[in-house]
Design brief:
The chain is an alpha/beta fold and 233 residues long. The chain is built from six helices and 16 strands. The longest helix is centred in the middle third of the chain and has 17 residues, at 110-126.
């Protein structure tokens, strides 16, 4: 095994696969034209789906010896032993792509999902140039500090979760507008909103420095990926 002392680069989207639950069909469909990185226990999910990853990254406490052996030495294994970060964060620190789409980081354990949300919030500062979307069995989400324009169908569930205190100057296309509201985890939050129009706008205050998550049904994954690539900022 090698240590992950370099960045794995992709000119297009890069898919990370963790050990949590997700819809296999969503993963296979998105992996057809993208490089795939297995994140520790995500190697099992890749092999179950019949997909050979370009690399495996993590502390290797979940990837089985038999699964690693099945790769036959053809796939680089990057072992990062430190325990101060999650495997998702380890991978994020050693990859580079305009869009990173992650499967298997939201399901099975709620504490792991919270840790993933925290990693995405950190990445808005550490890797602002890389857009990140996570997909689980039921939800897809992104975390940003910027204005985001989306195009979800009317009556789509549209939740906004503030990582800290976030003020919003303007919103459009939502049943319950967020114009002029300040959201925070210990105050008002923006969950269980819905879309009122086929185009939506969410604009934080001009001096905002705090991240917030936009959470939608996983059926809107493609629309969300388009939004973070072309409708943010």
């Amino acid at each position: 095994m090698d240590t992950a002392d370099h960045i794995y680069s992709s000119p297009d989207r890069l898919i990370l696969v963790g050990g949590g639950s997700f819809n296999k069909d969503d993963f296979i469909r998105n992996a057809r034209n993208a490089d795939v990185i297995a994140v520790d226990g995500g190697l099992h999910a890749c092999q179950e789906a019949g997909i050979t990853p370009c690399a495996v990254i993590g502390d290797m406490d979940s990837a089985g010896a038999a699964e690693i052996a099945a790769l036959g030495g053809a796939v680089p294994i990057h072992h990062i032993a430190e325990q101060d970060s999650t495997d998702l964060e380890k991978a994020m620190q050693h990859i580079n792509a305009p869009l990173c789409l992650g499967f298997g980081f939201l399901g099975r354990r709620f504490d792991h999902a919270l840790a993933s949300l925290t990693v995405l919030a950190r990445m808005t500062d550490a890797r602002p140039e890389m857009k990140i979307v996570l997909a689980g069995r039921h939800d897809a989400l992104t975390v940003t500090k910027q204005t985001i324009r989306t195009a979800f169908p009317v009556d789509t569930r549209y939740s906004v979760w503030p990582v800290g205190t976030v003020g919003f100057d303007k919103s459009d296309g939502l049943i319950w507008p967020l114009d002029g509201l300040t959201l925070s985890p210990h105050g008002q939050v923006g969950t269980s909103n819905r879309t009122a129009k086929s185009a939506q706008l969410l604009q934080p205050a001009s001096d905002n420095t705090t991240a917030f998550a936009v959470i939608v049904p996983v059926e809107c994954l493609g629309h969300l990926c388009d939004a973070v690539m072309f409708g943010a900022g």
